[in-house]
Amino acid sequence: MTPLRSLILFFFIAATAFAAVAASAPKPWRGALYGAAAYIPDLNKPARAAFIINTTPAAATNEDSDWLALAAQFNALVLSIPIDYTKPDAGAQRILDTLAAGSRLFVDHPEMKNLGVVLFGFSAGSAGAARAASSPLLSNPDPDKPPQRVLAVINLDEIDGGAYEAPMSTPQLLLSDAGDQFGGLLTPVESSNPPISHDAYVRKRANGGAPITVVNEPGHFHGGARYRYRNRVDYGFMRIWLEEVFKARLPPEPPVAAPALAPNWRGHSGWLGAYDVATNTASLPWGDDERMVNVEIAPRADYSGDRPFIWLPSERAAKIWRTYAVEGVLPPREPDRPLTATDAFLRPGDDVKNGKHDMRLPPFSEPARGAAPIERLRCDLAPAGTGAVLIAFDRAIVSGEASVEGVAKSDGPPQVWSNVMIVPLKAGVGAGSLKIALSHIPPKDGGAPIDFTLAAACQ
């Protein structure tokens, strides 16, 4: 072989290898489909499912680590589609039209138009999600006949009866919160007559064969928005639950030729969970809010108790659900993953729930590459001379210490709510800067504590 031919062969092999590596790297895409904000983790692979998000703001899920991890794990198409609970068929048709638009835009993805869907709703959006799931466009009233496009329904902080119910054949998860005046276990189902609590309603459906789970998530309030700050810890159990549902419910191959028939899970074997509800137990992390007690789990075939039960999709989900119910903390998914701060801002004024004048602190306020430099922070606690710094973490924390220097000083020990630390402040004697040294902050899941410092130059 001549030197020239050898050189050409070398470059051909190198180019082929480079192309193979490039093809194997994920190719994420964000954009709009049929007017809906859309995201897919990897266009180099077939999509396996579609997550339909019916909540405002969409960032509640589109920026959440557990939702993004689920999307990547199953290469799911994530769509933010508003669904009016008074027009379920219109909502279902828009879902189908949006999926079809995906296949038209991405001609190498004929499976998109046929994907099974997970419908998620928050608060009143839960009614729209569940009612659209029951539309005959997605779920034939005969659960053994097509179409059966719904893989699961997930309700955050609300579940409704009557016309707003999901199909009895479809797995459903209610994410409830002990301190939520709208979605708590003992809160009545909206417009129920006679009144029935969320807890009793869910157990009634489960005892009728519906594959439905409820989990009590202490410290999340209504969608995690207490103190006008949305935390990011609502979806850890949902991720586990949906993983287990998908193991048995997701079609083994992408639905290229036609939609798959989601199986009828009414009376699904799975596992069962039973419990009582107690209040005023003065126990952390519930305080005096409602909590589950006397918790037990068993395979359906082995359950012999006389208490009404809820359904759980698998042994793994059942054991984690029990731990969460008893301890109020999810077992660590990645025990060695360091705790990480995700956001921090200064909130002036004496009302810690008033976020109208929030000022984000570095490094979370650093400009994007190529953007104009940020201005110095207005570290002004006027007119009250008080305020707070709020720091969010990637998961729930237990406690912490804070030392404050500069234009402000500490006005008491830090307060902890779920994954948010609140450092009370009052006006200091310094000028030109604000420095907050945080230390001994352990995650609630048992990981190692961390220390870090926030510093800002002030006007």
From TrEMBL:
<feature type="compositionally biased region" description="Basic and acidic residues">
    <location>
        <begin position="348"/>
        <end position="360"/>
    </location>
</feature>
<keyword id="KW-0732">Signal</keyword>
<feature type="region of interest" description="Disordered">
    <location>
        <begin position="347"/>
        <end position="367"/>
    </location>
</feature>
<feature type="signal peptide">
    <location>
        <begin position="1"/>
        <end position="19"/>
    </location>
</feature>
<protein>
    <recommendedName>
        <fullName>Alpha/beta hydrolase</fullName>
    </recommendedName>
</protein>
<dbReference type="InterPro" id="IPR029058">
    <property type="entry name" value="AB_hydrolase_fold"/>
</dbReference>
